[in-house]
Amino acid sequence: MTDIDTKNTIDSMLQEDRCFAPPSEFVEHATINKADDLNKLYQLANDDYETFWATLAHDEIDWHTRFSKVLDSTNAPHYRWFDDGTLNISYNCIDRHLIERADKTAIIFEGERGDIQRLSYRELHSAVCRFANALRLHGVEHGDRVVLYMPMVPEAVIAMQACARIGAIHSVVFGGFSAEALKNRIEDAGAKVVVTADGGYRGNKIIPLKAACDEALSHGCESVNAVFVLKRTGEDIAMTTGRDIYWHDATKLVADDCPPEWVNSEHPLFLLYTSGSTGKPKGIQHSSAGYLLGTIMTMKWVFDAQDDDIYWCTADVGWITGHSYVAYGPLALGMTIFMYEGAPTVPDAGRFWKLCQYHKVTVFYTAPTAIRALMKAGDAYPGSHDLSSLRLLGTVGEPINPEAWMWYHRVIGKERCPIVDTWWQTETGANIIAPVPGVVVTKPGSCTRPLPGIDVAVVDESGNVIKEPNKGGYLVIRKPWPFMLRAVWGDEERYRKTYWALFNNKYYVAGDSARCDEDGYYWIMGRTDDVLNVSGHRLGTMEIESALVAHEKVAEAAIVGVPDDLTGESIFAYVVLKGDRPIDGIDENLTAELRQWVGKQIGSIAKPKEIRYADNLPKTRSGKIMRRLLRTIASGEAITQDTSTLENEAILEQLQGKQ
Ligand code: WTA
Questions:
Q1: Is the pLDDT reported for residue 278 higher than 60?
Q2: Res. 584: pLDDT tops 60
Q3: Which terminus of the chain has a lower count of CB atoms within 10 Å, N or C?
Q4: Pocket test for ligand 1, best of 524, 530, 541, 546 (most atoms within 8 A of CB)
């Protein structure tokens, strides 16, 4: 253990020394493959970051009216970028490819039951125009909000693009959310229209989307006057006369061309509600031009976008990742995306690998939670598929523990594919800290360095930059960037309080703790509200979890702090084993072994006081472990939180020792 300043910083003690240079096979074809080229980008951004972004915005976006103003900070912390320009996002994602790529496949889709669909850019254009015309016909105008509650099918992307085409603001609500969650979001957004489907397929089941929608609309939601319903499953559903209309009927008699509505750069493209584990959901509001630029640049820098790629981001369109890296970024570059509707384990844990093989996926982007689950299922699944089309792998959403990183690297990437660990948030719009894979050496568990033009720092409680390597602190962004959030919809106070107040509006506060090592590499340590304070030592939950998962018997772990008379907080670990759960969840010998193990990996201070074994951990539907809930359980308190957003609500009984 090193000398620790217990007053002002978060202590970091996880040590990871492995480094991986970009594999030569990848470097050879990468667009940015020379350190000099990347350094030049950093240099330009450092010299004058406004001109840097302005040049890219001029070059990468097709403008209707070019902008003359770059950054307007008059109303900070509400920043405006490229303010007097006008453009259309759907035009940039579709129309501009029609000259050279009209017959190129834009979307390849496979449903859980094996149905396959392909849409060329020309077909996508026509589908988007038709739906945009249908929306217009039903009174949707510039600035109106449209809530989408859809399965992961091409029509979800078509509906998003159609909204963008007419200047309507979409708000996608993840199809797994309950009727109540949907209702809250519809009401907060004041949506005029809802777009849904009769149902969607997932995990060998039909998700009754229309029924949930009906329930949501049955009490409240007065702003809604039309519901568009996509026929996906063909199940019997109730249709309310005068309000509900089938997608295929609505699009039958409209023109298949729809002139794009030119909007201001700052016009809101969408609202996306962050999954509220506590309180009211926050509607994160994004812009048009700045947001588009972020998705384009990160597709190029981080995903090395190439014309012949088959790009698969597994995220649902209900999350920010499904916005930036399914519906917008890749299409803005005229790429071919792959979409899959179902669960990764249907019919078995080899499904993702089978899809990669069959559709010849070249870039694969997923979440650590999926990687760990598939790792747990064993090497035979990936082993029996040809994964040679893959050239680049990505991860997002939570810290990836080095063991899962190594498995991804060895078993999926066969040591020939770089891994881009991308740190970002709903609020940041696109990747913020991530490697440029043809140049940057990666370290398992680190998202490496901030991208050009992004000014990231780790600061202490007084807002001073922590210069000493490996000392943890608050992760902040010190300069505005084009793809940053613009507001929390209808809640100015929350916007200021959550993101700006801590350091007096000087920095954007990410809410994560991080450390920066001697090479300038960032290591995310967890949420600042997940920081433990044990005997005056602050520890990031992720570090202890990573140590536990590095043990050969452990598949997954979650750490929470529970109040402790002696030490302030004590460490409570929930552990999922690779094998079976011990009888009654108790195994004294293994507990001693794991405590010893963590002590060895990090230091005695990090040894969990208690370990409880479970078959699974409570997760949100986007795969995040709900630590706040675990904290309640570990403290023996009654659960008062809303648990309806849990993927696996039943696990709570076991965690509470009732099973
Ligand atoms: C976490 C997802 C470590 C982090 C795009 C952040 C990560 C939150 C990473 C945002 C990563 C995301 N390494 N942690 N590569 N990526 N996170 O809004 O805590 O769903 O603040 O956006 O996920 O989650 P969100």
A1: no
A2: yes
A3: N
A4: 524
DSSP class of residue 551?
S
Atom of ligand 1 lying closest to residue 400 CA: 13
Beta-sheet pairing, 508-516 with 473-477 = antiparallel
Spell out which residues line ligand 1, taking CB within 6 angstroms: 274, 319-321, 396-399, 421-426, 447, 510-512, 524, 527
**C-beta separation of 189 from 145 below 8 A:** yes
Nearest CA to ligand 1 atom 24: 425
SS3 (DSSP) at 72: strand
Ligand 1 centroid, distance to 306 Cα (angstroms):
26
| pLDDT, tens digit, 9 for 90 and up, residues 613-649 | 999 899 887 778 888 889 899 888 888 877 877 877 8
Q: For the chain, how are helix, strand and coil distributed in percent, rounded to 5?
A: 30, 25, 45
For residue range 549-568, list pLDDT tens digits in order: 989 999 999 999 888 776 77
Cα of 538 from ligand 1 centre, angstroms: 21
User: How much is the CA Rg of the chain, to the nearest whole Å?
Assistant: 24
3-class DSSP state of 155: helix
Name the residue of 442, 512, 542 to mutate for ligand 1: max ligand atoms within 8 A of Cβ.
512
Give the distance (Å) from ligand 1 centre to CA of residue 588.
34
Mind listing the pLDDT tens digit for each residue in 516-534?
Answer: 999 999 999 877 766 676 7
Question: Is-contact 339 105, C-beta < 8 A?
Answer: no
Closest atom of ligand 1 to 421 CA is 15
Q: Which CATH number fits domain 531-655: 3.40.50.300, 3.30.300.30, 3.40.630.30, 3.30.830.10?
A: 3.30.300.30
Q: Which atom of ligand 1 is nearest to the CA of 524?
A: 3
Distance 273 CA to ligand 1 centre (A): 15
As a whole number of angstroms, the distance between CA 438 and CA 557 comes to: 33
The C-alpha atoms of residue 434 and residue 285 are separated, in whole angstroms, by 23
In this prediction, residue 536 has a pLDDT band, given cuts at 50, 70 and 90, of low
For residue 274, the ligand 1 atom closest to its alpha carbon is 18
387, 392, 397, 403: CA torsion to nearest 10:
70
The span from the CA of 265 to the CA of 85, in Å, is 6
Six token digits for residue 336: 């071919």
**What's the per-residue H, E or C state across 412-453?**
HCCCCCCEEEEECCCCCCCCCECCCCCCCCECCCCCECECCC
Nearest CA to 594 out of 571, 567, 615 is that of 571
pTM for this model (two decimals): 0.87
Which alpha helices (DSSP H) does 171-301 contain, by range? 179-189, 209-218, 247-250, 289-301
C-alpha of residue 67 to centroid of ligand 1, in Å: 32
What is the DSSP code (8-state) at residue 31?
A: S
Q: d(Cα 385, Cα 401) in Å, to the nearest integer?
A: 25
Distance from the alpha carbon of residue 303 to the mean position of ligand 1, in angstroms:
17
Residue 221 Cα, ligand 1 centroid: separation in angstroms?
A: 31
